[in-house]
Design a protein that fits this description.
With about 220 residues, this protein is α/β, with parallel strands linked by helices. It contains 7 helices and 10 strands. The strands form 2 sheets. A 7-stranded mixed beta sheet has the order 3-2-1-4-5-8-7. Strands 6-10-9 form a 3-stranded mixed beta sheet. The longest helix is centred in the middle third of the chain and has 10 residues.
Length: about 220
């Protein structure tokens, strides 16, 4: 199995041409509420800050800003094909290197981690940006995390995530954390495989490889 570094991976057609979130809206059959399992607008208090990683065109964020002008909304995506600007702050960047200013009351990533190389690193970065009572929620398929020989790493990774305060719903393939986390996980990222094929969404995804490593 040939592993790619993240800068090479991000130029891969599997990653750069993904269309998972291009037209996704806040509500509706495939909207954020259904995919994440909760109503984002009902969760956010007045004046709250929301960061959406791998936001695609950002239509869901524009929906939220139109319904709730009080919110401070930021969207980040590797491919900067944003639907509009205005009330939402959009940034074109890799979520494995981008860093925000300040904390967020909510950080989400809708079907974006499937295409990220260092998935565990992305989880830790997102959790570190939370306010004291903030929430991180994302779609996460633990089957996309592998050991150096390509074997599934779930039996090693899930206990470590739970010890770090993350909760994982294996049936819905969602991960969540309440409150910030600045620690580490006992794994070293080796690289990613963009030839993993379709995951549970039916779309081609990326396998991320790690070796166990002491903290």
């Amino acid at each position: 199995m040939e592993l790619l570094a993240d800068d090479v991976l991000e130029a891969s057609p599997v990653v750069a041409n993904r269309a998972m979130n291009r037209e996704r809206r806040l509500a509706g059959r495939d909207g954020y509420a259904r995919v994440l399992g909760f109503d984002v607008l009902a969760f956010l208090r007045p004046g709250a800050r929301w960061l959406d990683l791998c936001c695609g065109s950002g239509r869901a964020l524009l929906d939220a800003a139109a319904a709730r002008p009080d919110l401070d909304v930021t969207g980040v995506d590797l491919v900067g094909f944003f639907a509009a600007s205005g009330p939402v702050r959009f940034e074109t960047a890799s979520i494995t290197t981008w860093a925000p200013a300040g904390e967020f009351d909510l950080v989400t990533c809708v079907h974006g981690l499937h295409y990220v190389g260092d998935k565990l690193g992305a989880l830790l970065r997102a959790a570190s940006w939370l306010a004291r009572d903030g929430v991180f929620a994302a779609n996460f398929d633990v089957a996309g995390v592998r050991l150096p020989d390509g074997a599934p790493a779930a039996r090693r990774v899930l206990p470590a995530l739970r010890e770090a305060g993350f909760t994982y719903d294996g049936r819905a393939r969602r991960i969540r954390r309440e409150g910030p986390f600045d620690g580490a996980l006992p794994f070293r990222y080796l690289g990613a495989d963009d030839r993993a094929g379709p995951n549970y969404t039916g779309q081609p995804a990326v396998h991320s490889c790690y070796e166990p490593s002491p903290l």
